Amino acid sequence: MHKLFFNLKESQLFQYLVIGIIIFNAFTIGITTYELSTFTKNIINLLDYFITIFFLVEILIRFIGEPKKNEFFKNGWNIFDTLIVLISLIPIPNSSSYLLLRLLRVFRVLRIISIIPELKLIIEALLGSVKRVFYVSLLLFIILYIYATIGSILFSNDIPQRWNDLGVSMITLFQVLTLSSWEQVMLPLQEIYWWAWIYFFSFIIICGITMLNLLIAVLVDVVINQKKL
């Protein structure tokens, strides 16, 4: 029996079936955001019950097929999958909590991460780079803080709605950082101060290009090192 479940959970056909069910589950969750007839809603609810049962059976197969049962929950991905399935089993009888139930069921789509090795690699790389990313982000925040303070001191009297204080200035510079209509922030000041372009260009070069590229380089380096392990 143990060998049967082990071969089943390791088979590609079983894994493809799980991926297919997860994708189908994502489709059924997405379709509930549209206006549907009562009959269609009942069909989707029935399918949701079957999907929940399937995920429960799948977790049990993986657990029974695990050669060393105590090793099953030492794997973070197994814990993640089990929690997602257990959340789906939570009964919420009153209709006022139906929205919460739908929100909880959405998280089942995340299970596709633990099924596809490439996605697992990316997530593990992101988690492994938290420390390095934190320091790069901290440096980015310090530069953003300095520029926001300078911007508030220089421009608060001219365009208070964008530069009135440090908080508002940081929000304004965050828009500039995303390069979303940043010229609309610069041009009104350019009409007042000819040198305003220097402030914005230097900020974009330092934060929007250099720092963000450094952040990407850190993530790429971690992913490459993950593949070598």
The low-confidence runs, each spanning 5 or more residues with pLDDT under 50, are: none
Question: Which structural class do you get from the secondary structure elements?
Answer: mainly alpha
Classify the beta-strand content into a percent band.
Answer: under 5%
CATH architecture verdict of the largest domain = Up-down Bundle
Number of domains: 2
What is the CATH superfamily of the largest domain?
Answer: Voltage-gated potassium channels. Chain C
Q: Bin the helical content.
A: over 70%
Do you know the CATH topology of the largest domain? Answer: Four Helix Bundle (Hemerythrin (Met), subunit A)
Mind telling me the CATH class of the largest domain?
A: Mainly Alpha
Q: What oligomeric state is this? A: single chain
Largest sheet: none
Net shape: elongated
Write the element-wise H/E pattern from the N-terminal end onward: HHHHHHHHHHHHH
Describe the structure.
There is one protein chain. This protein folds into two domains: 2-115, Up-down Bundle (Four Helix Bundle (Hemerythrin (Met), subunit A)); 130-228, Orthogonal Bundle (Helix Hairpins). The chain contains 13 helices and no strands. Helix 2 (12-31) packs antiparallel against helix 3 and helix 9 (130-155) packs antiparallel against helix 13. The chain is elongated and about 80 Å long. With 229 residues, it is an all-alpha fold.
